[in-house]
Specification:
The protein is α/β, with parallel strands linked by helices. It has ten helices and 45 strands.
């Protein structure tokens, strides 16, 4: 519809000559109209082009409103002044969206006990007075108890050219007005007198704000406040400026900007002025967040950050942050499109998405800038010791015992047993000379002696590490992010930051298909060192060093031993000459050990292998 004026002569009526009015319990939408020239020449009243009065659940959208006393009014007529029926219906849940209000005496009036009012995507341009007013009628009727507006949110509007304030908030409005994320006609934001004492508290150069309202962050690029088309037309990237000025919006200055970027189409960049901000609002849409140019130490982000979208960038050259909390790329996010650069990072950066996260060019603070070794075996503890000798701050993480499999459950204990049982292997040679020897095996005592040998050597390794300045942490480590380890210990979790990480986690016995370890009939080499009694029969699958040493030990202790190997030779990884292999085979046969090469072990039953 097009509504022009109302046909009344100026000053001839006391009733407000409004263009379109909805109220007194009616609900609905006023959409897509052109309403102009609604005025009344009265010192005590004003006409509204569109008026929402004493009702609720109303949408006023996509209208062009111009050259009227009031462009749009959302007003609860106070029963305290006029009595019934003005005290019946409250004004609540009204949305003013996508309208253009141009050349009016006042743009948008929100008056008296209205609540839950959303003002979004509107263009306020060249209004002679204030673009937006929030007040109550005690301004004219000071003797009456009249409620003030509450729950007012003003976002994504273009507010320029106002003859008065861009936003005026009467001092009786005690509920904080959320006027963040608007364009005020200047990249530096509005001029603000938030204590209404006549002196500017913040000079941004844009349309002014008088009274208590949160205005930072603001839009620093005009989102196309075209007065010809109703409402804001967002057709290009939007820059959001965050500064620690004015009343703080709910959740904090930066979190308000993140919420806006999540909702605002084409929100491209958030620029954060120097200060300290909570950044815990989840980021769910692509955006670049950078600081005002300068050192990262000037702009600090607190709280844990959650990145739930591809295309997110945190920090840039000379525009990074000091980030105290953890940063997590959420599952399902292509982390190769996420960039965390040029920041000072004190928390964990965890990639739970897929592909590699770009977290380069950061300074990683952490608890200590270690060189970290994961795994305390022959490779790990030797590397850790050497780093310590070179003066590097080094930590060695081992979930079990320093020394690894070789020292604790492999080379050393098998060789100790081999040496301890060596006299038993010479009984037959003594018998040939007429000397008959008998021997009883005390298996617990034999294992105890072997454990003492292992413990002595392990203590030697621990002393070497201590002398080299290496810190040893007993726990299980996992990579938590670039240069970070999360370590689970008996006391809880610990996180360390490392310049370099060496993974020296060693090896484990392979479980063959059809032969899973059960600790009773199918044993790993570790299990074989802790048998409670000597078995009558023993099959050793594998003809490597540990397998042959265990075969020899248990043969000496009295077991009937068979060695089964898939390949056509023993010790396949060592490269013995043909003559050497012949000597080895002869020695095994002389001991009574049966060897079956080119033979695969495929299963185990109660009857055998």
């Amino acid at each position: 519809n097009t509504v022009t004026g109302n046909g009344l002569e100026s000053g001839t009526g006391w009733w407000a000559e409004n263009g379109i009015q909805i109220g007194y319990g009616a609900t609905g939408e006023i959409v897509g109209n052109t309403v102009t020239d609604c005025r009344v020449n009265s010192p005590s009243w004003a006409a509204s082009a569109i008026l929402v009065v004493d009702t609720n659940h109303v949408v006023v959208a996509d209208n062009y409103v111009a050259n009227s006393d009031i462009g749009i009014g959302v007003i609860d007529f106070p029963g305290a002044i006029w009595g019934s029926p003005w005290d019946v219906d409250e004004v609540e849940d009204v949305e003013v969206r996508g309208n253009t209000l141009a050349g009016n005496s006042w743009g948008l009036d929100i008056a008296n006990g209205v609540t839950d009012i959303l003002v979004v995507y509107n263009v306020f341009i060249d209004n002679a007075g204030d673009a937006i007013d929030l007040y109550d009628y005690s301004y004219w009727y000071p003797g009456y108890a009249i409620p003030a507006p509450s729950g007012v949110v003003i976002h994504y509007n273009s507010i320029t050219g106002s003859g008065g304030d861009g936003l005026w908030v009467m001092d009786t409005v005690t509920d904080l007005v959320d006027a963040t994320l608007n364009w005020w006609g200047s990249p530096e934001g509005p001029d603000v007198d938030w204590d209404a004492d006549g002196t500017l508290d913040y000079a941004g150069g844009g349309d002014s704000i008088t009274g208590t309202a949160a205005f930072s962050p603001w839009l620093a690029v005009d989102p196309d406040g075209d007065p010809i088309l109703p409402g804001v037309q967002i057709t290009g990237p939007i820059l959001i400026i965050v500064a620690p000025v004015g009343p703080e919006p709910t959740g904090g200055y930066l979190n308000a900007a993140i919420r806006g970027a999540n909702e605002l189409p084409l929100a491209d960049t958030i620029e954060v002025r120097h200060g300290t901000y909570d950044a815990s609002e989840p980021i769910t849409d692509a955006v670049t967040i950078v600081s005002e140019e300068g050192s990262a130490s000037h702009t600090t982000l607190t709280g844990d950050m959650s990145l739930g979208s591809p295309g997110i960038r945190i920090g840039f050259i000379r525009r990074g942050f000091t980030i105290l909390g953890d940063i997590t790329v959420l599952p399902g996010v292509d982390a190769s499109t996420v960039h965390i650069n040029w920041n000072d990072l004190y928390g964990i950066v965890a990639n739970e998405g897929f592909r590699c996260l770009d977290a380069t060019y950061n300074w990683w603070a952490g608890r200590n800038p270690y060189d970290a070794i994961v795994g305390g075996g022959p490779a790990g503890y030797v590397a850790a010791r050497r780093l310590g000798q070179l003066g590097k701050e080094t930590v060695l993480v081992e979930r079990d015992l320093v020394g690894g499999t070789c020292l604790n459950r492999g080379c050393i204990p098998t060789k100790a047993l081999y040496a301890a049982t060596e006299p038993l292997g010479r009984k037959d040679s003594f018998r040939e000379r007429g000397i008959v020897l008998s021997a009883a095996v005390d298996l617990p005592r034999l294992r105890g002696w072997t454990s003492e040998v292992v413990a002595t050597l392990r203590q030697g390794v621990e002393k070497l590490l201590e002398a080299s300045g290496v810190e040893v942490i007993k726990g299980e480590a996992r990579l938590a992010g670039p240069g970070q380890l999360r370590i689970a210990t008996e006391e809880g979790e610990e996180v360390i930051q490392a310049r370099a990480i060496v993974l020296a986690t060693g090896s484990a016995p392979i479980q063959l298909p059809g032969l899973p370890f059960d600790g009773e009939r199918v044993l790993s080499s570790r299990d074989a060192l802790a048998l409670p009694k000597v078995p009558e029969y023993l099959v050793v699958v594998g003809g490597g060093v540990i397998g042959l040493e265990l075969a020899t030990v248990y043969r000496r202790l009295g077991s009937q031993v068979t060695v089964v190997g898939m390949q056509g030779r023993l010790l396949p990884g060592i490269g013995l000459s043909r003559r050497g292999l012949a000597v080895l085979g002869q020695a095994l046969r002389r001991q009574g050990i049966e060897v079956r090469l080119n033979t695969a072990a495929v299963g185990c039953t109660r009857d055998g292998l």
